[in-house]
Automatic annotation (TrEMBL):
Domain N-acetyltransferase: 21-181
Keywords: Transferase
Pfam assignment, any one: ATP-grasp_5
Native species: Streptacidiphilus pinicola
Signal peptide: none
One Gene Ontology term of the molecular function aspect: acyltransferase activity, transferring groups other than amino-acyl groups
InterPro entries for the chain: Acyl_CoA_acyltransferase (IPR016181), ATP_grasp_subdomain_1 (IPR013815), CoA-bd (IPR003781), GNAT_dom (IPR000182), Ligase_CoA_dom (IPR043938), NAD(P)-bd_dom_sf (IPR036291), Succ_CoA_lig_flav_dom (IPR032875), Succinyl-CoA_synth-like (IPR016102)
Protein name per the record: GNAT family N-acetyltransferase
Record keyword Transferase present: yes
Taxonomy, superkingdom: Bacteria
Length: 916
């Protein structure tokens, strides 16, 4: 059992008002602070509520109890103000003597820190620590008039029961860190705190620029000019100890000399000065920093982040371009790109400065304005996750565009993105796809879990539109920003004024997973009536070069309103026929009408120089026009994926009744106690672990010795197909069997079994550790299901075609654990071999309900056990009424992955030679 001394040491987290506190276990050195908190910093009324009366000895006795040596079943945490180190709140729990799964809880907060979320944050961290000690229920006794405590437990998100007795109430809270209501409540509190902390950064009323040079062309000087001439509505204060004025602005020698306290400071100072200037900003009361400086050492970086945490400052950068806020009430352009961002509805966050410049210039050329632009740089603090939460509520952002080279907390990001993507498209450039996969991976599952597969699983589950380039991102953004989403069928009508380009456009649609169906007869007849003689109306529709512009528009309208297709692609080439000299002129009647119809419309103009641009309509709406059909089809396909994702019901994790996670965790811990470096579990341990989660493993007997193998074969032959058994040789670290001659199918006759065993003994010699005997199974559809643990993204569940042809077919899909019902349904229907699951030709369908249950249980096991490095269930033999795994391997490692949903800020590693 974990003791108080083994509780995770220190975390920094945001309170409801955006300020930072430090959460850590209490120690004997905190004795006086604990006593002072209870005696002097809590009013008599709050002491009464805490101790059920007033007692002069209670504060001292509480301090004595909380500072006793570490012991099993006891957890005591404190919240500290980072700068002064002052204790502002404590929480404790200790298990009952007769039931170590239940613990009594108490919490206290200093009067001047009430209503800031201290108690709730402490209890969240206590819940995490208590679950690590196998505590399942927290008990809190409270006076009936302690309304604040009742509200804390009501809002906590845990299932609670209350037992009333006169003026007292006993509250029982069932600890389930994975329950949807609890995670939703934690996420909502974290989001509110994030938003509060970002307000000084994204809605500042005063800005100081530190490190402004008098020399034109330098970063600080250029940025000051952009802020000044960009329409910033607040106070702007340049700081330079050697200048009286810069560009007509009064310059101040230091932060202390400023006439007020800036909410935001932009730092353009040398790397060796950054940490000291950040500390000065914190002492001055600054609440947010943008650090443009690059080249910070690890020591300088650590000191910078410590200063930010100590003074509750949010940090963008270092090594960034800056930020821009186009809200007319702010008008801040604090970045040194070539042009000022136009106001609009796209929230943009990038890590790479070069990508940021390129993306902003392309958006500017296209005419998509931004709500906020944030260059994250090295991303020490503020992340894409923070900005998504801000844009979700800012009332201006309708489209989020991200370029993220890394994920600090992918599972938290995924959870946030799933929610935000319901209200706005989130687009990203999928960077780093060329990274080589896990060449040294042992199992089929781990070999499949490449970084690309893992990242794509995150994007797919979260509803993020992942593009392969900045150009594709901009092309897709043009469509999503201007047109309605298509329906989920993916059907497209192609209309052209030249048959050849229509055929190419239809091919492009097919290439990207869209369907170009033959049009219904009544619709084709209607088009024939509209179009010139000789037009083709099957789809693609060839209106011919003689078609007047008005006729093309009428055809587009007829198709968009027909319901026969979900999108219309209009492809035009300039011709010598008709009055229009360019393709755009031919669209004049189209632009005279509404730009948004009931279904999306996009144009392909072959004489267009720009890759994508907008055609402005009379009603103020816009139609995207592409220079080639491939770009247009790709954008439509991305819109289709978003439409299908939105059509999926929001679902929670599928339940796995009967799972025994505590028993499984103990089994793994015992193994790691005997094998500190981890390793592949022996077959009996694999069977026990899978049984903890109800995963269907074939009956088997583990044998060591020839006679025991013969006896096992006699027993298992009764259930084996054709009375046959399967013998599998095993030795420590063994991965594959069939290619090494370590698997034999034989009759259960004693002589045959002995011969097989002796062949193993002769072939493998002293390596042979034992033999696993199984009844031979009837044939069925062979599938693979497994887990690979990613050190950053967490556990990935892989599913696909299995058996000895698994690698040959390479037909797999993957999702991050735990799995929702929607995730599982998508996995079952996204394989090339999916038709086999539903019955194909003479092959019966598999038991889909049981297969869904297997994936859910595997996902739950992966989420529960961070030590689970690899698990490979291959093959799963699936029939219409049964599913059984005939071969399973599990590898564990000594690893504790932090809870991705526990509220805490990112913490950089300590600088060399510095204390934690």
């Amino acid at each position: 059992m974990v003791t108080q001394s083994e509780v995770p040491r220190t975390a920094e987290a945001l309170l409801a008002d955006g300020t930072v506190v430090t959460i850590r276990p209490l120690t004997p050195g905190d004795h006086d602070a604990i006593a002072d908190l209870h005696a002097r910093r809590m009013s008599p009324e709050n002491q009464r509520l805490r101790f059920f009366g007033i007692s002069r000895r209670a504060p001292e006795l509480t301090a004595d109890r909380l500072c006793t040596p570490p012991r099993p079943g006891f957890v005591a945490l404190g919240a500290f103000e980072p700068d002064s180190g002052q204790l502002v709140g404590v929480v404790e729990c200790e298990t009952e003597a007769d039931d170590p799964s239940r613990a009594e809880l108490a919490v206290a907060v200093a009067d001047d820190w009430h209503h800031r979320g201290v108690a709730t944050l402490l209890i969240e961290h206590l819940v995490h620590a208590a679950r690590a000690q196998d505590i399942h229920v927290l008990l809190a006794d409270a006076l009936a008039d302690n309304h604040a405590m009742h509200k804390v437990f009501t809002d906590l998100g845990l299932a609670t029961n209350r037992h009333w007795a006169d003026a007292q109430v006993r509250i029982e809270a069932v600890l389930d860190e994975t329950s949807t209501p609890y995670l939703d409540a934690v996420e909502a509190r974290g989001s509110r705190a994030d938003i509060a902390s970002l307000r000084p950064l994204l809605r500042p009323r005063s800005v100081a620029v530190v490190g402004v040079s008098r020399r034109p062309g330098t970063v600080g000087h250029s940025l000051l000019l952009k802020i000044r001439h960009g329409g910033f509505t607040g106070s702007l204060w340049p700081v330079n100890p050697h200048a009286g004025q810069i560009d007509g602005l009064l310059c101040f020698p230091s932060l202390d000399a400023l006439p007020g306290t800036p909410q935001l400071a932009v730092l353009a100072v040398p790397a060796n000065q950054v940490a000291a200037v950040a500390e000065e900003c914190g002492q001055r009361g600054v609440r947010a920093l943008v650090v443009l400086t690059s080249g910070l050492s690890r020591t300088q970086s650590t000191r910078l982040l410590r200063a930010c945490r100590r003074h509750s400052m949010r940090l963008v950068g270092p090594n960034c371009l800056g930020l821009a806020v186009t809200d007319p009430e702010v008008g801040l352009d604090a970045e040194f790109g070539r042009t000022a961002p136009k106001p609009g509805a796209a929230g943009v966050a990038v890590q790479s400065g070069g990508v940021g410049i390129a993306l902003m210039e392309q958006l500017d050329a296209l005419g998509i304005g931004v709500s906020d632009f944030v260059s994250l740089g090295d991303k020490y603090d503020v992340s894409g996750n923070d900005l998504l939460q801000w844009w979700e509520q800012d009332g201006r952002t309708r489209l989020a565009l991200l370029h993220l080279e890394s994920f600090g907390n992918p599972r938290a990001f995924s959870r946030t993105a799933r929610r935000v993507a319901r209200s706005m498209p989130i687009l990203t450039v999928d960077a780093g796809r060329s990274v080589a996969g896990r060449r040294g991976a042992a199992s089929h599952t781990a070999a499949a879990a490449t970084p690309t597969v893992t990242r794509q699983a995150l994007f797919t589950q979260a509803g993020i539109t992942a593009t392969h380039s900045i150009a594709e991102l901009v092309e897709t953004a043009a469509l999503l920003d201007s047109q309605p989403l298509p329906g989920i069928t993916g059907t497209v009508a192609v209309v052209s004024n030249a048959g050849g380009i229509g055929v190419l456009a239809a091919d492009a649609c097919t290439d990207h997973g869209l369907t170009v169906p033959e049009l219904p007869a009544p619709l084709a007849l209607r088009l024939a009536e509209l179009l010139p003689e000789g037009a083709a109306t099957a789809n693609p529709v060839d209106a011919t070069a003689a078609a007047p512009a008005e006729t093309l528009v009428a055809a587009v309208d007829a198709l968009a309103e027909s319901g026969a297709v979900e999108a219309v692609l209009l492809c035009l080439a300039p011709t010598a026929l008709g009055a229009a000299r360019t393709a755009e002129e031919a669209l004049a009647p189209l632009l005279a009408g509404p730009g948004r119809r009931t279904r999306p419309v996009a144009a392909v103009l072959l004489d267009q120089r720009e890759p994508v641009r907008f055609l402005d309509c009379a009603d103020g709406s816009r139609i995207p026009a592409y220079a080639d059909a491939q770009s247009a089809a790709r954008a439509l396909a991305q819109a289709l994926r978003r439409s299908r994702w939105l059509a999926q019901p929001m679902s929670s994790e599928r339940e796995t009744p009967g799972s025994r996670p505590t028993e499984a965790a103990a089994l793994v811990e015992r193994y790691l106690g005997q094998h500190p470096d981890g390793g592949w579990l022996e077959p009996p341990l694999v069977a026990r672990l899978l049984d903890c989660y109800g995963l269907p493993l074939v009956d088997a007997i583990w044998c060591q010795g020839e006679d025991s193998v013969v006896e096992a074969a006699r027993v298992l032959a009764r259930t084996g197909e054709g009375g046959e058994v399967v013998l599998k040789a095993h030795w420590p670290g063994q991965i594959h069997k069939s290619g090494l001659g370590a698997l034999r199918v034989t009759s259960a006759e004693d002589e045959q079994v002995r011969a097989a065993y002796r062949a193993f003994a002769a072939r493998f010699g002293e390596r042979l550790d034992g033999v696993l005997v199984q009844p031979r199974q009837a044939t069925g559809t062979e599938l693979l299901a497994g887990v690979a643990q990613d050190p950053v993204f967490g556990p990935l569940v892989v599913f696909g075609a299995g058996g000895t042809t698994a690698d040959l077919l390479d037909d797999r899909t993957a999702r991050l654990a735990p799995l929702t019902g929607t995730d599982i349904s998508a996995m079952l229907t996204s394989l090339r071999t999916t038709p086999l699951l539903f019955g194909y030709r003479d092959r019966p369908p598999v038991d889909l309900e049981r297969l869904e249950d297997v994936l859910a249980r595997l996902g739950r096991m992966a989420a529960d056990l961070p030590q689970l490095a690899e698990a490979d269930l291959n093959p799963l033999i699936c029939g219409p009424h049964s599913i059984v795994c005939v071969d399973a391997r599990v590898r564990v490692e000594p690893r504790r992955i932090p809870d991705p949903y526990l509220r805490r800020l990112r913490r950089l590693p300590d600088a060399p030679g510095e204390p934690a």
